[in-house]
Amino acid sequence: WIGITGVIMTTRRGELSIRVDQWVRLAEARRPFPDKWHGITDTDTRYRQRYVDLWVTPESRNAFMIRSKMMSLTRHFLEERGFIEVETPIFHPIPGGANARPFTTHHNALDLELYMRVAPELYLKRLTVAGFDKVFELGRVFRNEGVSTRHNPEFSMLELYQAYADYEDIMNLVEELVEYLAIELTGSTVLHFGDKPLDVARPWRRASMIELIKEATGEALSLEMPIDEIRKVADKYGVPYRETYGVGKLVLEIYEKTTESNLWGPIYVTEHPSEVSPLAREHRDKPGVTERFEAILAGRELCNAFSELTDPDEQRRRFESQAAQKADGDDEAMTLDEDYLRALEFGMPPTGGLGIGMDRLAMLVTGVGTIRDVVLFPTLRPEK
C-alpha cells in the first residue's frame, strides 16, 4: 500500500489523474494476492482466508455486500411497522427458547455455569409481558450442533414478537418481508438457484404437516391413531425412534424423513403436534396440534413461528414434559424456567412470534448453495 500527494489533473487523453509530488509506503505486502483472473480455486482456502477471497473473488464480495444491505432493509421494514429493536442477554443461566444443545461457559467471579443463548425468545416474551407490543432482535445465537451446507454453530437470527397477533398475522408478515427483500435486492420476486427458479410473490401456499405427509407418501396419519399403528408407518419408512416417543413426535419424525426434503416452496407447513411445540399455543379448533408454522423456501426451512402459549399452567406442563424427554436422553429438550413462568403469571397478551435464520435468508437472496458463502468467517476444523 502506498500513499500519494499531488495535484489533480487531466491527461492528454482526457483521463482524470494525479500528478504525484510525494509518495510514502503505508504498508508492506509480504505475500502476493492470487491472480484476480483465476481467483482461489481451493474452496477451503476461500473460507479460511476470507481476507484474500474478498479481494480476488468479486462474487464473494458482492454476496456480503448484499447481505449487509439485507440486514439494513430488514430493520427498516420492521421499524416502518412500529417494531422497536432491543438487545437481550447472550449468556443465559438456563438454556431455553429452542430445542437445541447449548454451548456452556463459566463465570469465574460468580462461580456460575452459563449457557450461550440458543434463542432470545424467552427474554423477548418477558418484554411483551412488560408492555412492549412490537419488539425484535437481530443478533447471534449459538447451537452446539453439526456443521453442514445449511448449519453453522453460530448464526444470525431475527426474532420478533407482536402482541394482539397470531400465527396467521405472522405468516402475512413473513411473506411480505421476503417479497420486499427480493424486489429491493434483486429487482424481482423470482430468485434463482442454478436452473431452478423460486417465485416468492405473495400469497404462499399453506398446508398442514399431516396433509403434506399424505401427499408425499399416501399415508393418512392422525394424532388419534394408536401408537402401534404410527410405529408401523415409521418402521415402513425406516424412521428411527425411541420407545418413549409419543404420536406427535413420531409424526414429526415421519415428516422429516419422508416429506420435508421434497418441498421446494414457498410453502408454510402448519399445525405441528403439541408434543413437539412446547412454547406454541394449542390450535383453537384442532386438539393435539398447535398454531405453528415453518416456512420452506428453495427446499430449506427459513423460519419457525407460532401463536405464543400464554397460559402459565399449560406452559409448566409443557416444560415438565420436556424435562422428562431430557431425562430420557434428549439433549435438545428444554429446561424448566421458573422466572419465565413467573412472568407469564403477570399476564401476557395474545402474541405472535417469529424466528428467521438470517444466514439462510441471505442464501436465498444471493442464490448461493452453502451457508459458508454468506458467513464471513464460518466455523471450520483446525488446519492440520
Report the structural category. Answer: alpha+beta
How many runs of DSSP E, i.e. beta strands? 15
The ordered string of helix (H) and strand (E) elements is EEHHHEEEEHEEHEEEHHHEEEHHEH
Distance between the termini: 32 Å
Specify the biggest β-sheet.
Answer: 8 strands, mixed
Main attributes?
single chain, three-stranded antiparallel β-sheet, alpha+beta, BirA Bifunctional Protein, domain 2, 34% helix, globular
Describe the structure.
With 384 residues, this protein is an alpha+beta fold. Helices cover 34% and strands 23% of the residues. It has helices at residues 43-48, 50-56, 58-80, 121-129, 167-186, 209-217, 227-236, 247-258, 312-327, 338-345, 358-366; strands at residues 2-10, 16-25, 84-85, 91-92, 104-107, 112-116, 134-142, 154-163, 190-193, 196-199, 205-208, 267-270, 292-297, 300-307, 351-357. The strands form four sheets. It has an eight-stranded mixed β-sheet with strand order 3-7-8-15-14-13-12-11, sandwiched between helices. A hairpin with a 2-residue loop joins β9 and β10 (196-199). The mean pLDDT is 95.
